[in-house]
Amino acid sequence: MALVKFKPTSPGRRNQSGYTFDEITKEKPEKALVSPRKVAAGRNNRGVITVRRQAGGVKQALRKVDFKRDNVGVPGKVAAIEYDPNRTARIALIFYANGDKRYILAPVDLKVGDFVKSGQDAEVKTGNHMPLKNIPGGTPIHNIEMQKGRGGQMVRSAGGMARLMVKEGGYALIRLPSGELRRIDENCSATIGQLGNIEHSNISLGKAGRRRLMGWRPRSRGSAMTPRDHPHGGGSGRSPIGMPGPKSPWGKPTLGHKTRKKKASDKLIVKRRGSK
Questions:
Q1: pTM for this one?
Q2: Residue 56 pLDDT exceeds 90
Q3: In CATH, what number is assigned to the domain containing residue 93?
Q4: What is the pLDDT of residues 112-164, one digit of tens each?
Q5: In the chain, how many domains are there?
Q6: Is 22 helix (H, G, I), strand (E, B) or coil?
Q7: Is residue 224 part of a domain?
Q8: In this predicted structure, what is the pLDDT of residue 76?
């Protein structure tokens, strides 16, 4: 996949870049695999804003992606590579031999006409889905399960790739894209290969309006607010925040303050991301 830099016909267009969409082979999605997506604009069922800075955006349809890959033992043929507005990775339309149609995440080098398969007897090949105990060490993987049968939860974004390091004691040691080393039950499944659309991180939006189309509203600085709206607010001009460290609007420390809650799966983390 390649990127295209637009001609500077306007100030917003000057630094803007986008996709060439060379890999896309089908423009309209499969009708049976699409459902409407309601935009909540960051509000809960009572209409109260629970996630700030979300609203608007282009109308999108939700593609039903198969993260479980539970069509075990049935070969499927790649019918098309499609664009999904709800995720950064591309999706592949699979026609299975039993007549079933499903979307899966499209890895690099998966092309129309290729065959994919799920299950223990699947070959170690790009796009195939199998238990970690059947995957050789050093293999790049994505769409990794954290609990058996729950479906892939990790490494699902564009260019994502984890690596299976070693297997011992019923667990597989996985190096995630963040650098974290984590043990996962070797009966959990994963898909072979690296996810496509690798150059997604190099996209330059170029203007604020393009971000509004993605459903993001502007973000105001706390120091530009009043004291009643934010702890950083108040003062004349661009004054310091007047405290040892920055805080959220609700008074919680930010920028370096650890917010991760204790989870049962913490004991499976061998090395955290960013640690030396």
A1: 0.88
A2: no
A3: 2.40.50.140
A4: 999 999 999 899 999 999 999 999 989 999 999 999 999 999 999 999 999 99
A5: 1
A6: coil
A7: no
A8: 93
